[in-house]
Design a protein that fits this description.
The complex is a heterodimer of chains A (about 450) and B (about 375). By secondary structure, chain A is of the alpha+beta class. Chain A contains 14 helices and nine strands. Helix content of chain A is about 50%, strand content about 15%. In chain A, helix 2 packs across helix 14 and helix 6 crosses helix 13. Chain B contains 14 helices and no strands. Classes of the chains: A alpha+beta (about 450), B mainly alpha (about 375).
Chain lengths: ~450, ~375
């Protein structure tokens, strides 16, 4: 206990240890924040819930804060939902039925065009589908007919850039540009068009054939930036994965490192104390296991049995127990075994197990702690490696899985740097934090190295 | 004068016999190590087979597949269309039984596992289910052997490069202990906790994605250059980033620990004595510091190399390098069981060969092994 207290006091003298501790502390805070604000179930839903959960988010856009570093501001998403009162609603009876008019008004001030535009309808009627026509009003007073369509019962959507008629109409009226550009520029735009800034309006005029008809619609003008982390190819908010990656990485790294080092140490102590056959057996097993290719075997386990992070964790620990650490600990235990106090313990009749657990192992704890801390990053990266190979946990969002998605969808080639850099930076910070702390602890606990 | 003239041949005779006995010891050591490592490999490969086929899980998949293929064949074959449903079922059962017998699936697992082991050890790795070699063969061995040179080229070059570069820098730093560079390497040593593929991602982003001066990955340009010289140059260009990534991930820790070894050995008494004798700095470094440190360094390097090998599947995937590792990754994607097992076996072999080679180097370097093996 005294050694640990001394060590803590000594840590203050190492800047790298302080930096490492600071990073670890931050990670723990982030983990706690993630687990509290987004409970496990909610995180899984937000990450695996399906298209409906994240339909209002733009696809593969960088985080919103990059606008601070740009002179030309990228647009943020504008979502206008008639159920939330974002539309002026007018209903008037017409014959047996009625007409419903929804008028959406929004200001557009960004220097770039939106990513896409969709309208999501929610319709309820009795017999005949209502008929809707959508019109677009630009700030310079033009009026563009978007589409005429029959609304299906329940949820339906209209995607501007997938409608052939609209695409042809834009080409005819405005010029050879995509729909989301054509709606924001004056006709015959130059080579590099800029959006017209000002107030835009979208009008949905529906004719219903019975008075009970309900029509609601949400107009979404997708931006080119989102949130503090951006989104991926499925429109998911990367924030969820980046936040939840922290507790997953920490627990995996910590459990694997602790499980491995402590078991390794106990086995080494047993081998040294009982010597003879036991020691030999342990040494031979170590030699075999050291030659097993860890990653290919984990890949086999992941492919054939289970991708659950806990199964992989167990196998990793099993395969790393008999690692190179055994040889190091063995050398130290050999020295400890010869010390007089062990002899004294034997003389008063202490049992073998008592000597192993009360006399041998406590002596080597100062060596164990730095080792344990230094091992954590390698397991954090191992989890990421498996995820990048597509063998990550099927449920949990992790940093490695974000990198895998990014690489699999060509983020480096498409210049979507944020998608790779965000999880990579977090992994790097975690790795560096624990490694710096471990290296300094090593120098504190093993003073012979200190001068070097 | 004449005495000396006589003494020289006698000394030569003695040194020849000494060389012979050293050689014999080395040979014996090599043999013993070779046998030990071979036994280790056998156990390792058997474990691989056991994991791959634990509880016959893989067999179940294969049996299911055989049944489905045969059922489709029988149903689609116009010759059997006139048969009744019962007769068809019987025909399918019969054929499944024959096919399982042909593949040896009807024997108990223990016997089969030894058969697998024998096949794996002799590299009879069976036939891939979906993948082919470039020449169109379905033999797993051919697929893997075709990919092996690319892996050996990349990791062989990298290991040699890393070893000599680290050695050079470590020696240089140990000479100027406490200098700015020295402290820089000490401070940067924790960065080695990140694996090579991780640095690879960054390097790809910078040099291929942003600056566009180096290729994103792969072995050669497409289409490959026609003349051998241009081909080699193209391969070299594609190797720059992977080698940089692997080096970045390993060098700081290697240099840091090796320089520490050098420092430990240079505080030995015999180094002080050599200095007192007035030997030149180079001689002291070569004979009194480098020489006794090398065995320790080789052992340390062995662990680094094992780490590099282990990371190959993901590293080659990130760099799209057409080697063994990426084959394993592709096999995982296609669930091609024989290829997965085959690559794991080859990786076990590669690890064993690396350990064996470094063991021999160790034996040559460490006089204690030479004298009393």
């Amino acid at each position: 206990m005294q050694t640990i207290k001394d060590a803590l006091r000594e840590i203050r003298r190492y800047p790298s240890a302080i930096a490492g501790l600071f990073i670890v502390f931050l990670l723990v805070l982030v983990s706690i924040y993630a687990v509290i604000t987004i409970p496990y179930r909610e995180a899984i839903t937000l990450w695996r819930g399906g298209e409906g959960t994240w339909r209002n988010l733009p696809r593969t856009v960088p985080p919103a804060w990059i606008n601070y570093f740009r002179s030309q501001k990228l647009p943020e998403t504008i979502a206008l939902d008639s159920r939330k009162g974002a539309a002026e609603r007018q209903e008037s009876p017409l014959g047996d039925g009625k007409t419903i008019t929804l008028l959406y008004t929004f200001d557009y001030r960004a220097d770039d065009f939106p990513r896409e535009i969709n309208i999501f309808f929610e319709t309820a009627f009795q017999e005949r589908s209502p008929f809707a026509s959508i019109t677009w009003y630009t700030p310079d007073g033009r009026e563009i007919a978007i589409a005429d369509l029959a609304l299906r019962s329940g949820s339906s959507s209209f995607r501007f850039n997938q409608d052939d008629k609209l695409i042809r109409r834009i080409r005819r009226q405005i010029g050879d540009v995509p729909v989301e550009v054509g709606l924001f520029v004056a006709p015959n735009p130059p080579e590099n068009p800029r959006p017209l800034k000002g107030t835009y309006q979208v009008k949905i005029q529906a004719t219903a054939f019975d008075p009970e008809t309900q029509i609601d619609a949400e107009v979404v003008v997708y931006g080119k930036v989102y949130g503090i982390a951006g989104t991926d190819h499925l429109r998911r908010d990367l924030r969820i994965a980046l936040l939840w990656g922290a507790p997953v990485a920490l627990s995996f790294g910590l459990l694997a490192a602790a499980g491995t080092t402590i078991t390794t140490m106990i086995i080494a102590a047993i081998g040294v104390w009982f010597s003879g056959v036991v020691d030999n057996l342990i040494q031979r097993i170590t030699e075999v296991v050291m030659m097993l290719p860890l990653l290919p075997i984990l890949i086999m386990v992941g492919t054939f049995y289970s991708r659950s992070i806990w199964v992989i964790l167990g196998v990793t620990i099993l395969l790393s127990i008999f690692g190179s650490g055994i040889k190091t600990y063995r050398a130290v235990f050999m020295q400890v075994r010869e010390s007089p106090y062990v002899e004294a313990a034997q003389a008063y009749g202490a049992s073998d197990w008592r000597i192993i657990f009360r006399y041998l192992i406590p002596r080597i704890v100062p060596m164990l702690i730095p080792n344990l801390v230094t091992m954590i990053p390698s397991y954090v990266f191992l989890e990421a490696s498996l995820a990048v190979l597509g063998l990550g946990d099927p449920q949990l969002p992790t940093w490695g899985k974000v990198i895998q998605d990014a690489v699999a969808h060509g983020a480096p080639y498409k210049a979507l740097y944020y998608w790779v850099l965000e999880p990579a930076a977090l992994l790097m910070a975690t790795g560096l934090g624990f490694a710096m702390l471990g290296f300094s602890l090593d120098r504190i606990f093993n003073p012979r190295l200190r001068e070097m | 004068m004449s005495e000396q003239a006589l003494a020289i041949p006698r000394k030569r005779v003695r040194s020849v016999s000494f060389l012979q006995s050293t050689f014999a010891r080395l040979l014996r050591y090599t043999l013993v190590r070779g046998v030990t490592i071979f036994i280790t490999v056998v156990i390792g490969v058997y474990l691989t087979v056991m994991i791959a086929n634990m509880g016959g899980y893989v067999d179940q998949i294969r049996k299911g597949e055989i049944r489905e293929n045969i059922a489709i064949q029988v149903i689609n074959d116009p010759a059997y269309r006139s048969l009744s449903a019962d007769a068809k079922r019987q025909l399918i059962e019969e054929r499944v039984r024959l096919e399982e017998k042909r593949l040896g699936l009807d024997q108990p697992f223990l016997i089969r596992s030894f058969r697998f082991l024998e096949n794996a050890l002799t590299l009879r790795l069976g036939f891939a289910q979906l993948m082919n070699s470039n020449s169109g063969s379905r033999q797993v061995r051919l697929i893997l052997l075709e990919r092996l040179p690319a892996t050996l080229l990349l990791f062989g070059t990298e290991n040699l490069f890393l070893f000599f570069l680290s050695l050079f820098i470590a020696l240089m730093l140990s000479r100027q202990y406490g200098s700015l560079w020295d402290r820089l390497f000490v401070v940067l040593s924790p960065t080695s906790s990140a694996p090579g593929w991780f640095y690879g991602l960054f390097l790809i982003l910078i040099f291929a994605g942003w600056l566009r001066i180096l290729p994103f990955g792969d072995l050669v340009d497409a289409p490959p250059p026609q003349t051998p010289l241009l081909y080699a140059l193209s391969v070299a260009k594609h190797m720059i980033l992977p080698i940089m990534a692997l080096t970045l991930s390993a060098i700081f820790l290697s240099v840091y620990s090796w320089r520490t070894f050098f420092l430990i050995y240079s505080s030995e008494d015999y180094v002080e004595l050599a200095k007192a004798k007035g030997l030149s700095g180079r001689t002291i470094e070569r004979r009194y510091i480098l020489r006794p440190t090398l065995p320790t360094i080789v052992t340390n390097f062995l662990l680094t190399v094992i780490g590099l090998w282990t990371g190959a599947p993901i590293f080659e995937t990130v760099f799209n390098w057409p080697g063994l590792g990426r084959t394993l990754y592709q096999a995982v994607g296609l669930f091609d069981v024989p290829v997965i097992v085959g690559s794991t076996v080859i990786f076990a072999y590669l690890l064993a060969i690396t350990v064996f080679l470094l063991d021999i180097i160790y034996a040559i370097l460490d006089p204690r092994v030479r004298v009393s093996a």
